[in-house]
Amino acid sequence: MRDVAERAPATHALWIGIAASWLATFLVWALGGALEQIPHLEDSGASWYYWQLIEPTFWSRATAWGFYSLHQIAFWATIFMAQRQRPAYSGKLHPTNVAALAVNAGFIGLHFLQSHLWYDGLAQDVSIWSSQASVVVLLVWVILIENDRRGVFFGAKLPFPRRLRQVAVRYHGYFFAWATVYTFWYHPMERTPGHLVGFLYMFLLLLQGSLFFTPVHKNRWWKLTLEVSVFVHGTLVAIFQGNGIWPMFAFGFGAMFVITQMHGLGWSRRVRAIVIALYVAAALAVYGSIGLDRIWQVANIPVIDFVVLFALAALLGGGVFVADRVAKLLRSRRPAPTPSA
């Protein structure tokens, strides 16, 4: 009971945050009808983002980029302060947790007002692929830092250097904060099904990013929920688009679950074998109805994720190598201390 009581505040913050995320998503839907009157250019393909002003104004750009920058800096500042203080993991919220929650809640409200007053997000000036790539790298970064706990390929761990993982863990918060805040401000708060699912996902990621140095932040079931939420988001968006490629997303992200994600849950080999069998049976059933010649699509997302994983490891490893060599060179050039008389 004592352990439960000590963990209650952070746990309560999690559940309140989840409820607030759903409430914020409901408000985006309930009040989003006003944005449907804004005219848009015709959709011109996958690289075109439809929800932007035909003629952006000074204020649409200034508010989108200005508020995004303030949100980004403020969130980074809370992470920096927390790392400097190095508080022990505790069930109670630290002051920096409260500050991060307040920052994200405040800027969520500000983005809602900005969308209704000036509409445009960052999409007016940057590619849609930048937003999607940021989230892909975030999810792959999770695979990298979870390698020691659950492995990458059916429980098998990749031999990444310990120093690489230390750097990936230490600095992941800064990248995750950028990926979520950047993607959050990329979109105006429209109420299309894809936007609603996406904003709910961003709200939950911002919540997770605010609960650093608490047991909630490391809870494997909560982290898994955030990882597999992209399965729900990607599949639903593909279904809403009506282009018939939803199985690629459903079974692509499902493949990541059976290959990597489920192996850190403590399940027995028998349970995992049953899950894999159910996945294979479902994939054969669906692709059997739409054409087995398309079943290769299930490999698209895993291949992309693992290619990005090795690229990320190489990039971080190269950065660590250079930084360590530079630090060693600087230490070697320091003058030796003069012995006292």
Main beta sheet: none
Low-pLDDT residue spans: 1-8
Number of extended strands: 0
* Rg over C-alpha atoms, rounded to the nearest angstrom: 22 Å
Category from helices, strands and their pairing:
mainly alpha
Overall form: globular
Helix content: over 70%
Average pLDDT rating? 90
The succession of helices and strands, N to C, reads: HHHHHHHHHHHH
Distance between the termini: 62 Å
SS element count, helices: 12
The amount of beta strand, in percent, is under 5%
Produce the secondary structure layout.
Elements (H helix, E strand, L loop, with lengths): L1 H30 L26 H28 L9 H23 L10 H18 L1 H4 L11 H25 L6 H18 L4 H4 L1 H22 L4 H14 L9 H22 L9 H33 L9
Helix pairs in contact: 1-7, 2-3, 2-6, 3-7, 4-6, 4-12, 6-7, 6-12, 7-9, 9-10, 10-11
Report on the architecture of this protein:
This protein is mainly alpha-helical. Helices cover 71% and strands 0% of the residues. It has twelve helices and no strands. It has helices at 2-31, 58-85, 95-117, 128-145, 147-150, 162-186, 193-210, 215-218, 220-241, 246-259, 269-290, 300-332. The termini are far apart.
